[in-house]
């Protein structure tokens, strides 16, 4: 639990500090006269500060959780890193199968039903350009649409069965990952080659229009080994497809300590359970489960059912070194210590025994104003399962508790893991390093973080901060200015944004403008109109004649620092100072003197000259150095 402990001093100590500070501010003042109003005020504020600090120190995690609930937020939870891999070899693979990468365990979450179907070749057609995907050369989707991705497979796709196709895209610098509300900038359409013609195929895009790595699910109307993905619309950024895999293996960085499964006839255990886990077998009763000593496992099958009628058998498996069974003593607020690091909350399952019958016990938070008969809380900071005291959960009767589900992970520490994974004759080739793992945080730190982020766009800086966080966008420069600076008669805000792109002078596309407007709309103050604009670019020319005492080095870099806002540091509406540029060139290494300097704008209407010879640009203009000419004497 986080302990704030603002100041443990008594009010007398605080009062003495205040008097000492007062004497410094007002020479000759002292607290010798009790009737002095300043003395009374210092005593009162010292006492109130002591009371306030004591109350703040007593705040628990529940208070911060309630505060976050008012904001519609919640603390970040522990999440395992994920891994996408292509299956190599012909061995069988199943969910729960564990692979190790440099000693770090990864468990299979989803496995392909047919590992024989694989991507043989990937081609990109865009205009006259044709390129092939290789391990050392990704496919770069340019802006000129339409484009087509053609893929051939080692075996035909089955008709009317969804086929997940994983597309790995290299992360773009500066791009914020899209969220579920981000509309895709491009539309993907699927076609398959069957019966001598191209046939339309249903397609579900999980890449958000090639903004991130994801799964494109195709449901072919007929069997086919050739697929085409048509990319329609205005391509955002510069997507780079580095890998493609059909029916990939999905893994999570986790280590399962205990788990359970309910079996129906013929009661076959999942692979690897028999012989590798400590098993407990339960038969179903009307009001719960009863541990059944007549059941046993033979050749991976549970045998010894009491009747031939179909019934459910529960098998609880735990690793031999994991303490799954605990004793309950019917104490209010009783706790079960698991002593495991990085436990995933969603993996926790619990059964408790009362009078020989076992019942499922949820690990959750109770609903407000309701006392649940069974249940407990998970205290991650102390690594304990804490039962109720009668106010939120009923106190469980004396008996036993069995942890039927528990898995732990390294969280964010597993991000970036990559390497071959082998087990027997099965080999997995990761398509990208592990990603997505995150560590848990307390409600206190989440509340502090939310206080730092603007909840409303009140100031111009709030618009800029929020715009840089817009999901799906990659922005290089952002500036918010009053609408009056652009000659608008009404009040309002104009947001200027330059996208990050491979082009030197990229415009703000229609999709980017709409995305920024939609993202900022919930934060905009009522009555404050908002307009989103792209930059206007102004080319600048510099001609300089210098006398050199040696070899003049990199004078263009010096000029860029004072005349460029595209590759240089200048912002929208910057003033290009003739004096500053002259001084910088004069101080450059190897320059003895600057004999002449000319600074001019090559585009009219973007600014005007100042009396000192500089250029004052419009508020929405970015300058860039187009011409630079040096004459040496």
Structure write-up:
- The strands form nine sheets. Strands 16, 17, 18, 21, 22, 24, 25 and 28 form an eight-stranded antiparallel sheet that branches. A six-stranded antiparallel sheet has the order 2-3-15-1-30-29, with no helix packed on it. The protein has a six-stranded antiparallel sheet with strand order 5-4-7-13-9-10, with no helix packed on it.
- Strand 17 (278-285) and strand 18 (288-291) form a beta hairpin.
- 28% of the residues are buried.
- It has 633 residues and is an alpha+beta fold.
- It contains eight helices and 39 strands.
Main sheet specs: 8 strands, antiparallel
- Number-wise, the strands total 39
Rg over CA atoms: 34 Å
Helix percent reads 10-25%
Low-confidence stretches: 1-6
Helical run tally:
8
Mean pLDDT: 88
Helix and strand composition category: alpha+beta
Protein traits:
alpha+beta; eight-stranded antiparallel beta sheet; flat; disordered N terminus
SSE blueprint:
Blueprint: H1 11-25, H2 37-57, H3 61-71, E1 82-88, E2 98-101, E3 104-110, E4 119-126, E5 129-132, E6 139-140, E7 147-157, E8 163-169, E9 186-194, E10 197-201, E11 203-205, E12 214-218, E13 224-233, E14 240-246, E15 249-252, E16 255-263, E17 278-285, E18 288-291, E19 296-298, E20 301-303, E21 313-318, E22 325-328, E23 335-337, E24 349-354, E25 357-361, E26 376-379, E27 384-387, E28 399-408, E29 421-423, E30 426-430, H4 443-452, H5 460-468, E31 475-482, E32 493-499, H6 510-520, E33 530-533, E34 536-548, H7 555-563, E35 575-576, H8 578-586, E36 591-601, E37 607-609, E38 615-617, E39 621-632
Parallel strand pairs: 32-33, 34-39
Antiparallel strand pairs: 1-15, 1-30, 2-3, 3-15, 4-5, 4-7, 6-14, 7-13, 8-12, 8-14, 9-10, 9-13, 11-12, 16-21, 16-28, 17-18, 17-21, 19-20, 22-28, 23-27, 24-25, 24-28, 26-27, 29-30, 31-32, 34-36, 35-38, 37-38
Helix pairs in contact: 1-2, 3-4, 7-8
């Amino acid at each position: 639990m986080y302990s704030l402990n603002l100041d443990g001093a008594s009010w007398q100590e605080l009062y003495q500090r205040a008097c000492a500070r007062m004497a410094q501010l007002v020479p000759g003042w002292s607290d010798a006269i009790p009737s002095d109003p300043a003395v009374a005020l210092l005593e009162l504020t010292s006492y109130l500060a002591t009371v306030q600090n004591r109350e703040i120190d007593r705040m628990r995690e529940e208070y911060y959780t309630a505060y976050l609930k008012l904001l519609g937020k919640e603390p970040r939870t522990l999440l395992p890193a994920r891994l996408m891999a292509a299956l190599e070899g012909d061995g069988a693979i199943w969910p729960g199968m564990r692979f190790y990468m440099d000693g770090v365990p990864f468990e299979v979450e989803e496995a392909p039903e047919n590992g024989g179907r694989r991507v043989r070749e990937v081609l990109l057609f865009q205009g006259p350009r044709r390129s092939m995907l290789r391990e050392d050369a990704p496919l770069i989707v340019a802006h000129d649409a339409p484009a087509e991705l053609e893929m051939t497979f080692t075996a035909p796709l089955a008709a009317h069965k969804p086929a997940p196709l994983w597309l790995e895209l290299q992360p773009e610098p500066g791009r914020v990952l899209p969220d579920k509300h981000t509309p895709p900038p491009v539309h993907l359409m699927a076609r398959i080659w069957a019966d001598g013609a191209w046939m339309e195929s249903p397609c579900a895009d999980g890449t958000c229009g090639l903004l991130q790595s994801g799964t494109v699910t195709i449901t072919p109307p007929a069997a086919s080994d050739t697929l085409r993905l048509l990319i329609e619309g205005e391509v955002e950024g510069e997507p780079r497809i580095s890998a493609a895999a059909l029916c990939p293996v999905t893994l999570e960085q986790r280590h399962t300590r205990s788990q359970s499964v309910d079996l129906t006839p013929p009661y076959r255990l999942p692979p690897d359970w028999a012989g590798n886990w400590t098993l407990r077998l339960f038969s179903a009763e009307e009001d719960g489960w009863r541990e059944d000593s007549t059941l046993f496992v033979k050749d991976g099958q549970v045998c010894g059912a009491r009747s031939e009628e179909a019934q459910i058998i529960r098998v609880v498996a735990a690793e031999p070194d994991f303490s799954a069974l605990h004793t309950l003593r019917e104490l209010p607020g009783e706790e079960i210590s698991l002593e495991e690091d990085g436990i995933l909350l969603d993996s926790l399952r619990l059964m408790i025994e009362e009078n020989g019958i076992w019942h499922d016990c949820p690990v959750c938070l109770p609903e407000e104003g309701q006392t649940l008969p069974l249940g407990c809380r998970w205290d991650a900071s102390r690594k304990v399962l804490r039962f109720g005291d009668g106010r939120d959960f009923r106190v469980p009767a004396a008996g036993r508790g069995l942890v039927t589900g528990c898995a732990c992970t390294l969280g964010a520490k597993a991000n970036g893991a990559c390497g071959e994974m082998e087990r027997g004759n099965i080999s997995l080739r990761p398509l990208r390093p592990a990603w997505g793992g995150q560590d848990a945080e307390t409600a206190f730190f989440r509340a502090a973080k939310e206080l730092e982020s603007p909840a409303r766009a009140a100031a111009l800086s709030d618009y800029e901060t929020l715009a840089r966080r817009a999901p799906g966008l990659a922005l290089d420069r952002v500036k918010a200015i009053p609408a009056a600076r652009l000659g608008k008669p009404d009040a309002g805000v104009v947001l200027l944004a330059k996208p990050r792109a491979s082009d030197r002078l990229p415009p703000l596309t229609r999709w980017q403008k709409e995305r920024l407007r939609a993202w900022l709309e919930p934060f905009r103050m009522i009555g404050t109109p908002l307009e989103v604009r792209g930059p206007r670019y102004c080319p600048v020319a510099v001609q300089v004649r210098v006398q050199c005492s040696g070899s003049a080095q990199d004078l263009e870099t010096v000029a860029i620092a004072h005349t460029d806002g595209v590759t240089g540091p200048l912002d929208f509406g910057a003033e290009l100072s003739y004096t500053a540029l002259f001084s910088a060139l004069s101080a450059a290494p190897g320059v003895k003197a600057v004999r002449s300097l000319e600074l001019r704008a090559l585009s009219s209407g973007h600014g005007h000259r100042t009396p000192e010879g500089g250029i004052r640009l419009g508020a929405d203009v970015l300058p860039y150095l187009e011409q630079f000419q040096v004459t040496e004497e």
